[in-house]
Specification:
9 strands, alpha/beta, five-stranded parallel β-sheet, Translation Initiation Factor IF3, 2 domains, single chain, Hypothetical Protein Ychn, Chain: A, four-stranded mixed β-sheet
Length: 192
């Protein structure tokens, strides 16, 4: 089965892939996308569904071969100090006063490293994506959190809006489908 998702905007490539995978018990679905963000979003979705993914870069698009069915992979389990919570960061500062807000945001992110329970994921949305891109004063802190097993995700639409998609310095690009799924399935949301 081939899903041609070229030219489709977020989250359509993921939704079309989901529909194709749900239509089969096992087998191969090939998905065609024409940009790196869609490639990563579809790959992450398919892997989350337990599928294996091979990616071929062709002249003007990517071909993702998704195998649904038996795999020999050993499951990984999250670290015991990761909670099921998701932190959603909507701005590059905390509060109204910008300079103070940036100091508080850096302190907040640095303190997560020391917390006994850490979130499983951090979603950066709207101006929050400014923290995950070149020039951010918290890139090193976010990289340390990622090394601890916390998934760092930045909204692809937001990165596009601020013209920063090629400036992402930490984490992965996400889409609205993944964001909705994550927020509705987690143990709790912390909004900053």
């Amino acid at each position: 089965m081939i899903v041609d998702a070229r030219g489709l905007s977020c989250p359509q490539p993921v939704l079309k892939t989901k529909e194709a995978l749900e239509a089969i018990d096992e087998g191969i679905v090939e998905v065609l996308v024409d940009n790196p963000a869609s490639k990563e979003n579809v790959k992450r979705f398919a892997e989350k569904m337990g599928c294996t993914v091979e990616i071929e870069e062709e002249k003007d698009h990517f071909r993702l071969k998704i195998v649904k069915g038996f795999t020999c992979e050993v499951p990984t389990f999250p670290s015991s100090n990761l909670s099921g919570k998701v932190v959603v960061i909507l701005s590059d500062s905390m509060g109204e006063e910008k300079e103070l807000g940036r100091m508080l945001m850096k302190a907040f992110l640095s303190t997560i490293k020391e917390a006994s329970q850490k979130p499983k994921k951090m979603l950066f949305i709207n101006k929050g994506v400014l923290l995950t891109t070149e020039g951010s004063s918290v890139i090193d802190v976010l990289k340390e959190l990622e090394e601890m097993g916390i998934e760092i995700l930045s909204c692809g639409t937001c990165l596009d809006y601020f013209n920063l998609k090629d400036k992402l310095s930490v984490g992965k690009i996400t889409n609205m489908y993944d964001t909705v799924e994550e927020l509705l399935s987690c143990e709790g949301v912390v909004r900053i």
